[in-house]
């Protein structure tokens, strides 16, 4: 299930701020290919370049303002939903994990073991965790909804405190 978008296709991006800190939203011609969270803009742009080394990055200069506003509204109030096309790029296994994550409803959580079972790979719990860590589309592909078997919060690519806040907003914690 590889992306049909040329690997070297242009990616437009914009950086803004939300209650979780800096947020970078990037889109290809196919859809949103990255939502990155952090404390400062520069490391997010660097992360984007590392994730898409063959794609020219173009600062959107206002062209993504509406999309960025929709993403921020979703981050702040997940109940509003986010109906935008996604350009997910990863291995077949990662794609399966990310699709399973999108089936976890807001306000709910699942364990890494649950996700491994859902995708038909019950012995691949560590690989599921690695796929979560590789996810470039924060919140829209809700890795924050994945917890340890005992229900405790575990690592989150964007920081455990952000995970805690996102889950609280969804009513999961």
What's this, in brief?
This protein has 173 residues and is of the alpha/beta class. Helix content is 36%, strand content 17%.
Task: Tell me the CATH topology of the largest domain.
Answer: Arc Repressor Mutant, subunit A
How much of the sequence lies in strands comes to: 15-25%
Distance between the termini: 34 Å
Number of helices: 6
Helix content: 25-40%
The overall average pLDDT, rounded, is: 91
How would you characterize the largest beta sheet? 4 strands, mixed
Approximate shape: globular
Count of the domains: 2
**How does CATH name the architecture of the largest domain?**
Orthogonal Bundle
Order of helices and strands: EEEHEHHEHHEH
Instruction: Find the CATH superfamily of the largest domain.
Output: Winged helix-like DNA-binding domain superfamily/Winged helix DNA-binding domain
Radius of gyration: 15 Å
